[in-house]
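Appendix B.2, paired examples.
Example (i):
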Amino acid sequence: MHAWLCENPTGPEALAWKELPTPQPGPGEVRVAIAAASLNFPDLLIVQNKYQFKPPLPFVPGAEFAGHVEALGEGVTGLAVGDAVASFGGTGGFGTHTTVAAPLLLRLPAGFPMDEAAALLCTYGTSHHALVDRAALRAGETVLILGAAGGVGTAALQIAKAVGARVIAAASSDEKCDFCRGLGADATINYTRQNLREELKALTGGRGPDVVYDPVGGDLAEPAFRSIAWRGRYLVIGFAQGGIPALPLNLALLKGASIVGVFWGEFARREPQANARALAELLAWHAEGRIRPVLDSRLPMSELPAAFERMGSRGVRGKVVLLNG
């Protein structure tokens, strides 16, 4: 097998494409022949030694992938050689093969596209947990999505529309705003040239959004929170802009609003049955055509450095996917 090996976590430039022994699954594990893997922001952080999870060196990065079961370890049930699966396992995805604990695999319906499967679990799992579980978003409510053209943003947009909400998509360029309208956004805001608070006031008749979905953080957080509706829910997804904002808590008091943390990976670990129900709903929505992972570009697995460069360009719409074969 071949894989991208991180021996010194100083950034993507330190990764090396190497031939490694094909791993054998241990008890409770499955070996997967990887067909596709997608990039997520934590993949960059982990090879920079900036992520909260720090795997022992050396390791193969790549948290999210899809492929086919190639071998079963002792005690594994419910899976068979040849099954199509997807996983969000933390590491191991940027290669041709990996072993993964069986509970971390989602068995896919027949014919599910591998490139889409590799871009499903993290962004759609996060966004479903955020909007449906944590925010209890209801049909007819208004949700503001920051960074709406990115991976989690496009997933959140589609899920909010599937629930029946009105979506205001905020992005950093007119082109990205046009892209979001093409995905079904009811209104858009280019926050690099428009005043976020003034636009939200105009678009909601002064009421504000019921839910704010924020994977961006930084200087957008406070104006978004100041605009939130009475009993609004502010979802803390991540901090793609880099800065972790400090929100004035008196605003939560004045608006009767909630600041809600979203950590899908921990939710999946602590509440596996609830997570399984959420994933089943996502698969059903995909079969119905209500959601579909947005793929920005597809590159060969051997071109991981170019994929990281593409992800860092701020021009990505949806997810960058790497393919084997």
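Example (ii):
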Amino acid sequence: MKPLIVVTGGTKGIGRAIVDKFVAEGFEAVVCARSVEGLAGPDRLPFAADLATRTGVDALVRYVQSLNRPVEVLVNNTGTFQPGQIHNEAEGTFEQLMNTNVASAYHLTRGLVRDMMIQRRGHIFMMCSTASITAYTNGGSYCISKFALLGMSRVLREELKPHSIKVTAILPGATLTNSWEGTDLPEDRFMKPDDVADSAWAAYTLSKSAVVEEILIRPQLGDI
């Protein structure tokens, strides 16, 4: 039986690149997003859910558990961005970003990690951001949520050490995905989604006695 990876936000961008990389290396992937239309290819198990809601997260947990297979890798990649500042963001922005970017990862990890602990193996990736360590003027609640996600990653790392479960936070800079559609900047100012996926695979393939705790990866020419 092929090892199982669960990837949220896995239909496009970095999530899609991670799915493609791990499937190419012999995994079967549960791919979750609000819409999974157009997701094609072998070894991909699509599941549609809005992970900004607890109902959506619980539905995904039940689906994964129904497969009766151990989860080898969990990638908490669901996220959204809204520009703004704390004093002028639209009402509800904070709650929306915290639910999507932080609470989804918290509840999904809680729902799946117990079986990992029983197996005494597994690898959890948390898709953070350079915004997890660098506040910027128009980041507002997005930066807050990404700082929180990095904090959660560090807490999980400490809690799961004795259970042989690895935790890796990935902090990508500007990556050429749909979120940058329409930009006038040249492609060489961005990383490619495959760069992040290859970094995740490299971290996963280390020996059992080693873990990459954090991956900070930026465009060669620096932040945008």
